Amino acid sequence: MVTQGSSMLIQPRSLVRYAIEGGRPLFSHPLHVGTPNIGLKEDILARIEDILDRRMLSNGGPLVKEFERRVAEIANVKHCIAMANGTIALEIAIRALGMTGEVIMPSMTFVATAHALQWQEITPVFCDIDENLHHIDSSRIEALITPRTTGILAVNLWGRPCYVEKLEKIAEKHGLKLLFDSAHAFGVSYKGNMVGQFGNAEVFSFHATKFINTFEGGAVVTNDDELAARIRLMKNFGFDGRDSVAYLGINGKMNEVQAAMGLVSLDNMQAFVAHNRENYLAYREGISAIPGLDLLEYQLEERNNYQYIIIEVDESVFGLSRDELAMVMAAENVDVRRYFYPGCHRMEPYRSYYPMAYLQLPTTERILERVLAFPTGNAVQPDDVARITNLLSRIHRDRRYLEAVLASRREAVAG
Ligand code: T4K
Prior knowledge:
This protein is an alpha/beta fold and 415 residues long. Helices cover 38% and strands 16% of the residues. It folds into 2 domains: 2-33 and 269-336 and 375-414, Aspartate Aminotransferase, domain 1 (Alpha-Beta Complex), CATH 3.90.1150; 41-267, Type I PLP-dependent aspartate aminotransferase-like (Major domain) (Aspartate Aminotransferase, domain 2, 3-Layer(aba) Sandwich), CATH 3.40.640.10. The protein has 14 helices and 18 strands. The strands form 6 sheets. It has a 7-stranded mixed sheet with strand order 4-12-11-8-7-5-6, with helices on both faces. Strands 15-16-18 form a 3-stranded antiparallel sheet. A two-stranded antiparallel sheet has the order 1-2. The two termini are 20 Å apart.
């Protein structure tokens, strides 16, 4: 029981004490958003043993080649160039496409998207997002085009594809390059066509937290033969022969151990998707009855990887703010994340370069205050999800009590 200020006492309606007030957490260990999916350990170890026996550890070994072939096949695209991570894949794709000056992108993304431009002294011009899918709002792009604009870097956020045709139309009309950051969107389709074949190129991430992982890793995929050839050289210092360098290049190579992990992940891809889907459906069922919580839905008729469980919190209806809810959940060992708060435009160096950027980004700002990512993946079972959604119901029911608990904690810290 707590007092709110010096006024009345509010009793919780549930008998269980919340962890935030000293009760036992719902889960004995933290459930994370990004706990890696791991395929059969024996398969991974066997492949690593082979690598050691072969003594071919990097520089285009057989496993990297096999991984590239399988990724290209899944994405239904001609070329896949595997990379050390998704960020270097973005940087190389941007450079190989000849992007310079200004590139239009959403601020609602992992900061790597903006950094990949700024690292090459290209100005990211932040465009507002649409409030349903959290994607770059194509109706606002043209107003941001200047003589310095060379491209659009759209993000297939949360594994949900952008409205591709609209972006392609704008890019074509203005002679801009179109690159998709599809870090979240491997194994996903748009109108029945696999993500990977849109725009000039797309970039996947195979980081540990992605549903298919290579520990660290990424890839550029494209149907453009000439672009693919350039990217392949650029990621290997620009070498086009043993003693000959054709371009300014860098070391962006994926190694054989990464590819081994990736291949075993791909062997298990259907099982990972099925598991994520079950979790997603359990979240959907549990959340549907809770006022003030909106789950971003997947289109079930498309192919999805179901890796991001994204919930918007409407404080005025739910009764607690997104941040208050995150605090209560974290105490219960449900490690929800405020992805991608506070937005690239409020992170350095962008915050200093463009201190007024937020004025152009009202929807981004609003959505960034409401979004929470919830744990899923192999390490989370549908039963866990049911416990999480029951907890959310309980929190909503006890919202006034919890508000008071949080207020008294704030008072204790302040005083
Ligand atoms: N574009 C977009 C749209 C992206 O989301 C990303 C990466 C990129 C580009 C760049 O791709 P990469 O260069 O990373 O390939 C994580 C990942 O590091 C990052 O890859 C990912 N997006 C982003 C969405 O999530 P953090 O800072 O949230 O990671 P961290 O360390 O907090 O990990 C999340 C949780 O996962 C932890 O609480 C614990 C758990 N975890 C993590 C790792 C690495 C594990 O249990 N085991 C692990 O090995 O960024």
